[in-house]
Amino acid sequence: MKRIKLILTIVFILTLCLTVSGPVYASEEKEMVYADKKTQNELYSMLNSSTFDLYAALQADNLMIVKESITRVYTISLLKYAQSGSFEVEPMTSGVDKNSVYIAKVVTSDGAYAGNISFYVNNNTAYNLLFSPSPVLSDYYAGVENPRYIASCSYADHAQRIQGMVNRSSFVPVENVKYIVIDNVTQGFLVEDEKTFNIIPAGYMSTERFNTVDVNLTSSDLSDLASEYLENYNKQMKEREEWASKHPNEEWSFTGAYLSPIISGVSAVDNINNIYEYLNIPMNDLPKEDTSPYIISAIFAVLCFAVFLTTIFVIKKVKSRKRK
């Protein structure tokens, strides 16, 4: 009897744990180029708080962040790629605490593209990393000859352009796109699925004409970049060793770069602010709750508990009869 009682007790406790652990979801939310809706809402609230270090400047210029454009930033290391041959896309982080980096589109009060802002969050507070103004904020570039303005970071603004560049009959699905930064060489859109691998820089807008427009990096191009990066890196490390042998107890100061930035123009870029509607992204992008496992677990727990109580009652009844 003691053995039966122990088994039923364990079954009851395990079932109860499964029940209170919460409902089971029918499907996981698919990751897309933009942050999910819940994350966007949380980040947008932080960006519109006085604790955000760029909040006052944005308010002074009547600038607004497009909530639906808030995008998770990813990165790859060309050095790791060259050394291992493995292409690893990882979330970009900032600071000692390795906080995730995001980027968002900024517009004027009348909806014109005003630039991009990259930021990270620490302890529920957003911190600016870089604000890249557009031509409508020309005062930011006062005295700069032939300034380059980086194009919008929002995939929706490039969807039409990217569609043509990768020869698609429709927009590349948001699930197959990531915003990526590569070792200060370029930043833009990684388009990857079972058929396609392309890195398309967001590009620059400028009055001057570039030799290359609409750069499209293939896997072969990326491999060549990685090889060149590794070659330059090894050269710099050798120079560092030689310098250190002649300058003991002095700190090496590296001011160069392993590769020159890729300067890409853009043939056309849109200004889409109703992003979810334009790209046909469901507004209710959270997975639906499947309550059937929850209900079954609850019923099973009640039945086990009933059996458990009945067993105890029977045991006590038997014991009482034996005493008589």
SSE map:
Blueprint: H1 2-20, E1 24-25, H2 37-47, H3 55-60, E2 64-65, E3 71-76, H4 78-84, E4 90-91, E5 93-94, E6 99-107, E7 113-122, E8 125-133, E9 149-150, H5 155-165, E10 177-182, E11 186-192, E12 197-201, E13 204-205, H6 219-246, H7 275-278, E14 289-290, H8 292-323
Parallel strand pairs: 3-10
Antiparallel strand pairs: 1-14, 2-6, 3-4, 3-6, 5-6, 6-7, 7-8, 9-13, 10-11, 11-12
Structure, described:
The protein has 324 residues and is an alpha+beta fold. The chain is 36% helix and 20% strand. It has helices at 2-20, 37-47, 55-60, 78-84, 155-165, 219-246, 275-278, 292-323, and strands spanning 24-25, 64-65, 71-76, 90-91, 93-94, 99-107, 113-122, 125-133, 149-150, 177-182, 186-192, 197-201, 204-205, 289-290. Strands 2, 3, 4, 5, 6, 7, 8, 10, 11 and 12 form a ten-stranded mixed β-sheet that branches. A two-stranded antiparallel ribbon has the order 1-14. A hairpin with a 2-residue loop joins β7 and β8. α1 (2-20) runs antiparallel to α8. It is globular and about 60 Å long. The protein starts with a helix and ends with a helix. Mean pLDDT is 81; it is low at 13-29 and 285-304.
In short:
The chain has 324 residues and is of the alpha+beta class. The chain has helices spanning 2-20, 37-47, 55-60, 78-84, 155-165, 219-246, 275-278, 292-323; strands spanning 24-25, 64-65, 71-76, 90-91, 93-94, 99-107, 113-122, 125-133, 149-150, 177-182, 186-192, 197-201, 204-205, 289-290. It has 8 helices and 14 strands.
